[in-house]
Amino acid sequence: MAAACIFCKIVKGDIPSFKLFESEKVFAFLDINPLSRGHALVIPKFHGAKLTDIPDDQLSEILPVVKKLVKATGAENYNVLQNNGRIAHQEVDHVHFHMIPKPNAEEGLSIGWPQQKTDMDKLKELFAEIKSKM
């Protein structure tokens, strides 16, 4: 845990939260600046700024807890969002997954999807490069 991290302080109980779930590895709570009713955060207790900073074994419960939240909120349409880095819209430097119900066009997450034209030869090169590192 990082002493100055707001999410670490929430996990420790130093800052109050609307805790929805807690286990040895995971903590889930309502977002205090929600995009919609039921917007919640699921975080690993292990402190790390980006997804690549978190050991795999500390991530094993994340998606099952997200699923529990979806069922508990009754969300039929929802987004699961995890941002890494400032230009990718990360505000708190502790890995967190948003579960954001999307009840209608106005509430919840609104995103753009700026698709790019694909050059198949370049895509094949990229595929080979990435696959060789997996």
Automatic annotation (TrEMBL):
Which residue range or ranges hold the HIT domain? 6-109
| GO molecular function terms listed in the Swiss-Prot or TrEMBL record | hydrolase activity; nucleotide binding
Q: Nucleotide-binding among the record's keywords?
A: yes
One GO biological process from the UniProt record? nucleotide metabolic process
Question: What is the required cofactor set for this protein?
Answer: Mg(2+)
> Hydrolase among the record's keywords?
yes
Sequence motif: Histidine triad motif, positions:
94-98
Could you tell me what reaction this enzyme catalyses?
adenosine 5'-phosphoramidate + H2O = NH4(+) + AMP
What does the record list as coiled-coil region(s)?
none
Q: Which UniProt keywords are given for this protein, alphabetically ordered?
A: Hydrolase, Magnesium, Nucleotide-binding
**UniProt cross-references to InterPro entries, sorted A to Z:** HINT, Histidine_triad_CS, Histidine_triad_HIT, HIT-like, HIT-like_sf
Q: Per UniProt, what is one Pfam family of this protein?
A: HIT
Identify the catalytic residues.
H96
Describe the family membership recorded for this protein in Swiss-Prot or TrEMBL: Belongs to the HINT family.
Protein name listed in UniProt: Adenosine 5'-monophosphoramidase HNT1
